[in-house]
Structures are given as C-alpha cells and as structure tokens.
Specification:
The chain is an alpha/beta fold. Helices cover 40% and strands 22% of the residues. The protein has two domains: 121 residues, 3-Layer(aba) Sandwich (Rossmann fold), CATH 3.40.50.2300; 95 residues, Winged helix-like DNA-binding domain superfamily/Winged helix DNA-binding domain (Arc Repressor Mutant, subunit A, Orthogonal Bundle), CATH 1.10.10.10. α3 links the parallel β3 and β4. The two termini are 30 Å apart. The relative contact order is 0.11.
Length: 223
Amino acid sequence: MKLLIVEDDTEAARAMVTGLAEKGHQCETAGDGEEGLRAARDGRFDVLVVDRMMPRMDGVTMVETLRREGVQTPVLFLSALGEINDRVAGLNAGGDDYLVKPYALAELLARVEALARRRELGSVQTLLKVGDLEMDLIAREVRRAGGEIDLQPREFQLLEFLMRHGGQSVTRTMLLEKVWEYHFDPQTNVIDVHISRLRSKIDKGFDKPMLQTVRGAGYRLEA
C-alpha cells in the first residue's frame, strides 16, 4: 500500500514512516499542505494521512482543494483538536476518518488499512463516464455522444486508465506501469502511437477534443 504522510512535525512523520514501513507499506512524506497537495494530485496513493494544523496550507484546505479537483483518495486526518466540531469540520471537508493525537501506532495502522479496504470494495465500477464519453466494462463498449467507438484491446486499456483519472494529468511513467506493465522506460514511441490512434477515434468529428497533451507532464482526458 502506498501512503502519503502530510505532517510538519518531522519526528512524528519519521515515526509514522518507520512503523508503517515495518508492516510493508510504502510511505512518502510532505512537510506542509502545499507540498502535500502537489504530491496527492496524481492519485497514485492508496491513503493520505494528513495533519490538520500545518504551515502554508492547513490540512482542511488541502483536502477541500483535492476534492474540488476530483481526487477521491481516502484521507485520515490527524489532529490535536478533538472536539466534536473539529471532527465534523474535518469530515465535511472531505476527510474519511479522524484520529486525535496522541494516538497508538496500532490504531493508526488499523484505520489506514480499513480505509484502503473500503476504497478497494467501493472501486468496482462497470460503467465509466467522462463528459459524453462512456465505457461499459462488462460489454466492452465505448460510446461518445451515443456513437459507438471501436477500440483495440490495448486502446481500451489505455482509455480505461485515462477515464479512471478523468480531469487529472497522467504521466508517461504511470501509463507504462499501469497499462503496459513496464517498470522501466523502453525508450520507444509506443505511448505516442497509441495516444495518437486513440485520439483519432474518440475526438474525430467533434469540435472539442477530450484527449489533451499536457506539456512536460503527460496527458489528460478532459470533459
């Protein structure tokens, strides 16, 4: 499980990383809300563990921003503020759970793993939709504005990944790992070729293209 720890207390963050790593989890850290926001935007983490009170951008503002941008990664808030109103504010901001400091590492671990399980159970979708583009995963059909689009298997996989990250920029590395299952760059133009073919199929005949190239970042499917 990949976790992002957003905590301005370096000793507390180090302790969390050590304890979670011992259980086999991969952790990255961010020292404030702005740094955490940048790291969490691409959706590569399974759970975000976010301190509520931080410099530059507090945890509540960070999570509210992520939710507005469509990032639905589960969030566990950590805070010394334990009153009912504080908990409610965190949950209303888009948090999924709230743990009051000081806490036991065992409880932190249990809550993080529960959020990851909940996400996995809730992530089974059979119909994906971005704007007027729809994908039926059971029938293996793709339609835009009601018109059927014929895709090759790899094109279907590529579009599925882009639709699951609709509105977000996805990097070439993400595509290589998740669609082609390469954990290295083979130094070929395989992605460019497939993106070009996919773009010609889903955007042909429409005034507004959905599949966009994000300079220096990768690609984005935008409604």
